Amino acid sequence: MTKHKQWIFAVLTLALAAAPFAGVFFEDRGVTYAQSNAAAPVITEIPDEGEEALPAFGTTPLKLGSSGQDVYELQGRLKHLGYYAGAIDSQFGAKTKNAVTWFQWKFGLKSDGVVGAKTKLKLYNATTAWKPTAPKTSTANKDTSSGTAAKKNETAKTNTAELSSGNTMGLSENDLKIMANAVYGESRGEPFEGQVAVAAVILNRVKSPSFPNTPSGVIFQPGAFTAVADGQIYLEPNEQARKAVQQALNGWDPSGGCLYYFNPKTATSKWIWSRPQVKTIGEHIFCM
C-alpha cells in the first residue's frame, strides 16, 4: 500500500513539473496552430507555392528623378488605368509626375506628384488585375531601339513644322504644343469646327490686353481651363487637335472673336452665363 502511494505521488510530481512546457501542435490546410497552456493561440499562414508572384511596391517614396523597379511598376499600373501614355522606361520624369498628379486628384489624394504610402495603396487596390507586360528598358535596349527613336523624333519634327508654318504670331514650339494639348483635353469628341474654335479662343486671349500674352500663360491662368484642373492637359494630343491649332494659326476663327466658351451641361459658374453669347458649336457655347 505504501509503495502504491509512492508511485502515485511520483506521477503527480512529474505531471506538475512538465505542465508549463506542454504544447499541442496541429496542422490543417496550410495553417499551423500552436497552442500552449501559457499563451494564447498563434496563427501563421503558409503561402500557397502555386500562387503567381507579382511585383509589389517598395517602401521608398517615389518622386521626380526616381528610377528603377518601383517606377517601372508605377508606370505600368498608371498606364493600365489610362493615366499614363508615355514609355514604361523606369524613369520618373515629368510625364510620370503628371500622371501621378492626375491619379491623386481623381482619387481624392494630395496632388503633389509624390508617390507615398497612401498613393501606392490606392493605386495597388485600383489595379489588382495589372500584370507587367512592357519589357524593362536598359541602356542596351535604348541602343538597339535607336531606329524607332529616330522615327519618333522625325514625326515630332514634322508635327512641329506643320504647326509652325502658319505661326505669324512668333509663338514658341512649346506654346504650339501646349495649345494642341489644350484643344485635345478640352474638346476631343467635339466637331472639328468646335476644336478650331477652342484654339481660336486661346489666340484671341493672347491678343487681348485683359489676358496673358502667351498661349502658355493663357492656358495655365488659374481657373481658366478645365483640362488644366483635371490633368487632361497632359494627355498626348491626336492629329486632329494639331490640325485644329494649325487652322486657327492660319486665321480661321469659327467663334467669331470670342474670348470664352463653356458647356451648359457642366458649367457651375453663374458669371459665365452673363457673358454675351455668340454661337453654339457642338456642346460648347462661345461668348464674348
From TrEMBL:
Keyword entries, A-Z: Cell wall biogenesis/degradation, Germination, Hydrolase, Signal, Sporulation
All residue ranges annotated as the Peptidoglycan binding-like domain in the record: 67-120
UniProt xrefs under Pfam families: Hydrolase_2 (PF07486), PG_binding_1 (PF01471)
InterPro entries hit by this protein: Cell_wall_hydrolase_SleB, Peptidoglycan-bd-like, PGBD-like_sf, PGBDSf, SleB_dom1, Spore_cortex_SleB
UniProt signal peptide: 1-22
Compositional bias per record (Polar residues), positions renumbered to this chain: 156-168
Keyword Lipid biosynthesis listed: no
Upper classification of the organism: Bacteria, Bacillati, Bacillota, Bacilli, Bacillales
Protein's name according to its UniProt entry: Spore cortex-lytic enzyme
Ranges of residues in domain Cell wall hydrolase SleB: 189-287
Residues annotated as transmembrane: none
Coiled-coil annotated spans: none
Residue ranges of the region described as Disordered: 132-168
Domain of life of the source: Bacteria
